[in-house]
Model the fold of this input.
Amino acid sequence: MSDIEVMDLEGLVAASAAAGPQEPIQYTDDGWAIIHRDPITGMMTLALDDPPYMHVREVMPVDQLIAENKAIAAAVAGTRHGDGMSLVARIPMHIWANRLAEPMRQGDTKYLDAWLGNPDHQAFKIRKA
Done:
């Protein structure tokens, strides 16, 4: 048997309060508790108490990257790719690590082409070709 104690969100808040003074927990409009916010990356860790489950998700903002991608795409529009390497896409590290690192390691260009060709991922592309 494990000695791990299972607790709901209120228990987690109480345990955290016992550790010392903290800022009050903030909630999103849809009821998720913001349990951590990284001031450098902007990533937030959210929790939702849904007995008998506790859901946890991490949210990474990508708005700035997408705006930069649009600016770079506009700057290179109409130019040639060149004779060597050229920037095709800029993808947030968490997405790359979860979706693209292994196919890249394996040299799976079909998967990478399909992923970049997916309409949901167009905001990450610099070159539309």
Helices lie at 9-18, 63-76, 93-106, 109-117. The longest helix spans residues 63-76. Residues 64 and 85 are 24 Å apart (CA to CA).
